[in-house]
Amino acid sequence: MKTVFNVVLGLCAVVLIYICYTSIMGPINFEKAKKHREKAVIARLMDIRKAQQEYRNLNHQQYTASFDTLIYFVKNQKLPFIYKEGELNDKQLEDGMTERKAIAIINKAKKTGKYDEVKKAGLENFKRDTMWVAVLDTVFPKGFNPDSMRYVPYGNGAQFEMAIKNDTAKSGAPFCLLEVKTPYETYLNGLDKQEIANMKDVQTKLGKYCGLMIGSLETANNNAGNWE
């Protein structure tokens, strides 16, 4: 009987040790996994932001709410790149020369074939040419896959929620707002549900979005991330 009692007592001790261990390590392991997943989601959101900024620059200051459109843009669009050779010296600047004037003088010479004015202005070695370079090769690192932008890392195929809103400033000037987001449940799926519920409770009480996002449809914030 004493032996049985000792065995039961030993088992109870093991159970208590396990409960204490999990109560301590559970939140630690959750935090570690959360940070790992958040890092991947944030990187993807920043890729989307870069693509949208370039899209906006070439599309009348408008973003797109379509991932199909954005991905096609990254795969196929080219951006203007100004190749520069030579700089205006202090004397030229003091005489009122500007890059615009210098380019106009050079372009005129190219059309007429007469370079007297170019030589007189000392612009023989001054060049400004526009080159067109692919978005994919310029904005993103080698090997980047545009098709991946729509998908939330660790989201089991879930896509980011992306929306735009056209608004008007007090001055009357039109502007476009962008918002891209994904909730905790999407990229933290499979982790401790109670820990996720605790995070949501804190964010809700603070009046903040329960997840990761860039931009906002409520106010202009230069597409800042809510982790920044």
Features of the shown structure:
membrane, 3-stranded antiparallel β-sheet, 228 residues, two-stranded antiparallel sheet, alpha+beta, transmembrane
**Amount of beta strand:** 15-25%
Rg (C-alpha, Å):
29 Å
Average pLDDT reading: 88
- Please write the string of helix (H) and strand (E) elements: HHEHHHEHEEHHE
The main pleated sheet reads as: 3 strands, antiparallel
Strand order of the largest sheet: 3-4-5
Number of strand segments: 5
User: What class, by secondary structure content?
Assistant: alpha+beta
Helix content: 40-55%
Count of alpha and pi helical runs: 8
Indicate the low-confidence ranges by residue numbers.
Answer: none
Keywords: Membrane, Transmembrane, Transmembrane helix
Transmembrane segments: 6-30
Written description of the protein model:
- The chain crosses the membrane at residues 6-30.
- This protein is of the alpha+beta class and 228 residues long.
- It has helices at 2-58, 67-76, 90-94, 99-112, 116-120, 135-138, 184-187, 193-206, and strands at 78-85, 127-134, 161-168, 174-183, 211-215.
- Among the domains are: 29-68 and 145-227; 89-124, no CATH class.
- It contains 8 helices and 5 strands; from the N terminus they run ααβαααβαββααβ.
- The chain has a 3-stranded antiparallel beta sheet with strand order 3-4-5. Strands 1-2 form a two-stranded antiparallel ribbon.
- The chain is elongated and about 110 Å long.
- It starts with a helix and ends in a 13-residue tail after the last strand.
- The mean pLDDT is 88.
